[in-house]
Design goal:
Structural class: mainly beta
CATH topology: Ribosomal Protein L14
Largest sheet: 5 strands, antiparallel
Strand content: 25-35%
Strand order of the largest sheet: 1-2-3-6-7
CATH class: Mainly Beta
Helix content: under 10%
Number of helices: 1
CATH architecture: Beta Barrel
Shape: globular
Number of domains: 1
Length: 101
């Protein structure tokens, strides 16, 4: 995936966990319903950079990850296979995907 637009402002250079981004898909699996070079809206879920919790613990992941969105908050995926950061703070996500830390 390649990010080419960050929502919430005109001159943004970085995005945090829980923000919406516009991406283009660069590689797909053969059985996937997506096509190469397709543009999609996504929700940023995991970040390579360190994020700290209030209790002092630190979370970081090996790579960035996001959830693809059809429209508004209707997701293309049915589940989150890996853990995600709690800073997403959207109630619909907590009910739909139980794997969020």
């Amino acid at each position: 995936m390649r990010t080419f637009h960050l929502y919430k402002g005109f001159s943004r250079k970085t995005s945090k966990v829980g923000n919406f981004i516009k991406i283009s898909i660069r590689s797909v699996k053969p059985e996937a319903f997506l096509k190469k070079k397709q543009k999609s809206l996504a929700l940023f879920v995991r970040s390579k950079y360190l994020s700290s919790k209030n209790d002092g613990s630190i979370l970081f992941y090996r790579e960035n990850s996001c959830l693809l969105i059809k429209r508004k908050l209707v997701f293309r995926s049915k589940d989150v296979t890996d853990p995600a950061d709690y800073k997403i703070r959207r109630k619909k996500l907590f009910f739909k995907f139980p794997g969020i830390l």
